[in-house]
Design brief:
Layout lengths: L24 H96 L5 E2 L15 E2 L26 E4 L6 H7 L4 H7 L13 E4 L21
Antiparallel strand pairs: 1-2, 3-4
């Protein structure tokens, strides 16, 4: 009988019996069956190990998928919170812009109110007085008046004499910004000394804008003084 089978070693034969020279075909077949069973068991063990490995890997994949789902859910929650923060920032920005607009409008109204108030407050004028009873005394060109004028010490202050009502026919003139006694005297045809004497003024530096001067009745009114143009040399 042919005892050769593919996958088996032809020399792998069972031990013959006590009175046998070689194993019988049945013995060989049983031996081969035994070897096949051993090989099948080995393959089954390997398959079992592979199945266990695959099962572990499937469990790992399932755990990873679960983690991925949890991460996706966390990411969605984070995106929602981030969007809510963006909405809050936009709301706060709009509120800040509104407050800034209100502050700008309030500042503009305050500035306009301050300008209107400043227009209603008279400025501290300065009266320029020229001439006087003594031409040798130096008279400052600009005299600070109003609340900004420095106060004269009480020890040096001399009370001004009370001005008596002028006689009839005198002219009342109100001092304006830029006036000086020389110009006023020239405009009314009189002199600085006459005006000071007639008004009983001893210190012409105390004249203020808006103060009334009485022009002597003997003065002849003249046209308002105008600046004399400088002489221009004749052209040859």
């Amino acid at each position: 009988a042919d005892t050769h089978l593919d996958g088996f070693d032809p020399h792998d034969l069972p031990t013959p019996g006590k009175h046998q020279l070689r194993p019988t075909p049945l013995q060989i077949a049983n031996h081969r069956i035994k070897r096949l069973n051993e090989r099948i068991n080995t393959q089954n063990n390997r398959i079992t190990q592979l199945e266990e490995t695959l099962g572990k890997r499937d469990a790992q994949v399932a755990a990873q998928e679960t983690q991925i789902r949890e991460l996706v859910e966390k990411q969605a929650k984070s995106d929602a919170r981030l969007q809510a923060l963006f909405d809050q920032i936009a709301t706060v920005s709009r509120e800040v812009e509104g407050i800034a607009s209100l502050q700008s409008a309030h500042a503009a109204r305050s500035a306009r109110a301050a300008q209107q108030a400043m227009r209603g407050i008279p400025r501290a004028p300065q009266v320029q007085v020229e001439g006087g009873p003594s031409q040798s005394e130096a008279i400052p060109r600009a005299i600070p008046v109003g609340p900004t004028a420095p106060a004269t010490p009480a020890a040096e202050a001399k009370p001004e004499p009370t001005v008596e009502p002028p006689p009839e026919g005198s002219i009342v003139y109100e001092i304006k910004a830029g006036d000086n006694l020389t110009r006023i005297a020239r405009a009314h045809g009189t002199s600085v000394a006459e005006i000071l004497k007639f008004n009983k003024i001893t210190d012409e530096r105390k004249l203020q804008i808006g103060q009334e001067l009485h022009i002597p009745p003997s003065a002849v009114p003249a046209a308002p003084a105008t600046p004399t143009p400088e002489a221009t040399p004749a052209q040859p």
